[in-house]
Amino acid sequence: MEPRIQYAKTSDGVNIAYWTLGDGTPFVHMPWFRMSHVQLEWQIPEIRRWYEALSDKTQLVRYDARGIGLSQRDVTDHSVDALVRDVEAVVDRLDIERFALFGLVHTGPVAITYAARHPERVSKLVLWCTYARSADYSQSSEIQATRDVIDKNWEMYTNTLAHVRLGWSEGEPARRFAAVMRESMSPEALHASIDAFRHLDVTDLLPQVKCPVLVLHRRQISWLPVEVARDLASRLPDARLALLEGESGAPYLGDSEGVLDTITDFLGLDGAPAARPRPSASGTAIILFADISDSTGKTELLGDAKFRAKARDLDALMRTAIRQSGGTTIEGKLLGDGVLALFTSARQAIEAGVACATQGVEAGLPLHVGMHAGDVIREEGNAYGGAVNVASRISGLAAPGEVLVSETVRSLARTSAGVRFEDRGEQSLKGVGETVRVWAVVEGGGG
Asked: How many CB atoms lie within 10 A of CB 363?
């Protein structure tokens, strides 16, 4: 199942796209090279298999840096400090206190900087084919030659660079990755990124990285000599150097199983997959569904970029309202333009539902909000069960800006919610055998 893409906002106001997959030790996978696209990459079989293998043993976190992929594109700051803020935003949004960090090629210096500044957050650091000084990379004749083509022929540049990075023998994988590169970043943004890294040197930070570090490198890579990896490992206080055979700069190609085994062994995850929570009914939970009304029509009216920006802002407001009312957002559920949350209190669920509906109207993106209560099975960041399906169907009955609840929720909250309920009668719900009595929540008064 394709992970659900979400957004975190940095301290300087940039929206960062990310997803999570699996359970276990949190493992933050930084972007590939300078370009990445968290949605399109999932359509590349070899990359998808790589993510699935990692998520079998970890809680994998993957994000697009500012200016690329599905993250906010209209940015001017591509510095290491700015890219560190991207990491901070994602892990803070997920409330991850301690995690392993994976930096690849150009995100390696960013990972080093983050680990040096936040030793309390990074448990282990994995570095793949990377450097501490940009000069160690940019002096390669292959890299210099490809950069001359950026403005002359963007397609030729991406095709050539993909073969340089992934290996000249990797025909179809390189072509697929080149296509993702063209979708993930503009030539102008690439130039800005190259300029920001032109004189980069984080060598002085290496002694400040206190966590264990795994430096991974392939011997036959032509654009970054093995000596760079050796020098990098020698300057880190607690580093292990692993030199692997092959010419591909992509860990998911060539001996990908060897790379995966080395990483999981370093993280202490060797052997059986990470233990996952056994499915179990959590007892009665109040389930809230909130979904943007006519998102397709609003996208056509506003334009994709403007609609997505407004939807991201509304999503953040809804999640704040849910959290402040004591609810838990279910991150693994694929909902499109909406949220699913669970509550232990009907009063708090209604409070959050009303707040979300109000926020939707104020944002010009009215919501369908529906609620039901019943047994819920929680597994791998998702929620399952008949009660979840009923809540979803009830939200589909709600008019834009309206909050509908089942008779069960009304009975639990009728004396404490501080709202009125208007009877909407017995409703037949698709896929539900029996009719369900539904009530509209009206602010003001009780009972």
From this structure: 16
Domain 280-443: CATH architecture, name and number where available: 2-Layer Sandwich (3.30)
> Each residue of 243-260: pLDDT tens digit?
988 888 889 988 888 899
List the alpha helices (DSSP H) in 118-225.
135-138, 141-147, 154-166, 171-184, 187-197
- Which parts of 293-387 are beta strand (E)? 328-329, 338-343, 367-379, 382-384
Q: Is the pLDDT of residue 275 over 50?
A: no
- Average model confidence (pLDDT) for the chain? 86
CB 136 within 8 A of CB 144: no
Note the pLDDT tens digit of each residue in 430-447. Answer: 767 788 999 999 976 554
What the block records as the tokens of 48 is: 């998808």
- Written as six digits, the tokens of 115 are 């680990």
Per-residue pLDDT, 145: 66
How confident is the model over 217-239, as pLDDT tens digits? 998 888 888 999 999 999 999 99
**Domains in the chain: boundaries:** 6-266, 280-443
- Locate 303 and state its tokens: 């334009």
- Using alpha carbons, list the distances in angstroms from residue 320 to 6, 128, 294, 382: 14, 36, 23, 19
Prediction pTM value? 0.61
**Angle at the Cα of 341 from the Cα atoms of 337 and 346, rounded to 5 degrees:** 130
Provide the CATH number for the domain formed by 6-266 in this structure: 3.40.50.1820
Half-sphere exposure of 214 toward its Cβ, with a 13 Å CA cutoff?
Answer: 24
CA gap 45, 47 in Å, rounded = 6
H helix or E strand, kind and range, residue 387: helix 386-397
Residue 402 has pLDDT above 50, yes or no: yes
3-state secondary structure 56-68: CCEEEEEECCCCC
Taken in order 408, 328, 402, 420, the sign of the CA dihedral is positive
